[in-house]
Design brief:
Blueprint lengths: L1 H10 L4 E3 H7 L4 H13 L3 E5 L7 E5 L1 H21 L6 H18 L7
Antiparallel strand pairs: 1-3, 2-3
Helix pairs in contact: 1-4, 2-3
Length: 115
């Protein structure tokens, strides 16, 4: 869960998300997202920043330590995906899966991300 939050923040416009955007992207309640960010912030991987435009709004952004942690974790994460998932697919399986997931994303109105 922490990895996904760090990845979402790295990919977010301006490198930060509003708390409600983070909650919505993780399908979490606002209170669950707050508790999650509390733990990640305590580890020094993210920081909360008050919105300059809206005093009620709070952004969450990646810290330099968070970015370094994400970079160290990425090879382990990708190795796990390969070991437990993609290594069991043939090229034809992977193509079929990509096509099916693309159709699902299209039906849901989700933008596909590049590899």
């Amino acid at each position: 869960t922490w990895y996904e939050v760090l990845l979402l923040l790295r990919e977010a416009p301006a490198g930060r998300l509003r708390m409600h955007e983070l909650a919505d992207s993780r399908l979490l309640s606002r209170s669950a997202a707050t508790r999650l960010v509390d733990r990640i912030e305590a580890a020094g991987l993210v920081a909360r920043v008050a919105s300059e435009d809206d005093r009620r709004g709070t952004f969450v952004e990646l810290t330099p330590l968070g970015l370094a942690t994400l970079r160290r974790a990425a090879p382990v994460h990708l190795r796990g995906i390969d070991e437990h998932f993609t290594s069991h697919l043939s090229g034809q399986d992977a193509t079929a899966l990509r096509d099916v997931m693309g159709r699902i994303a299209d039906a849901l109105g989700v933008d596909e991300q590049s590899d």
